[in-house]
Amino acid sequence: MSVEDVVAAIAPADPVASEAARLRHERLTKPPGSLGRLEELSLQVAAIQRDECPAIRGKAVIVAAADHGVVAQGVTGYPQEVTAQMVLNFLSGGAAISVMARRAGVKLLVVDAGVATALPEHPDLRVVGVGRGTADMTLGAAMSREQAEAGVLGGVGLAR
To answer: pLDDT, tens digit, for every residue of 51-61?
Structure first.
């Protein structure tokens, strides 16, 4: 499957479902618009799912980590080794996102989307075939088109 195939398979959002969801919200016992941004998001999900009562299944937080080659230019406050340390902390449950995901009862998936340091296998670590970090973008392309497509398609695979 190509990125073009993925994009072509995306159905447009359904304004009829969004409007039906909005009307349904109006019938609920609550002040209009009192849910704020959450209400807006629910209408968007209704339009995407083409259903006035959308369901969110398989809830997860996906954290993707990668290293960029431009670090060689001194533009970041931390060396690349810190990325791998952060990933290991996510996986061991010691990071803030790990705690929040656990408290919310959602799955935490950590993605190696190009970490420069090799990481040990872990059941919650997914590897997207992008490589070990990118090249220095000040000297040329940071990654090839193939690497970029692998990253996009890897993300699509995780979302499904």
So the answer is: 998 888 888 89
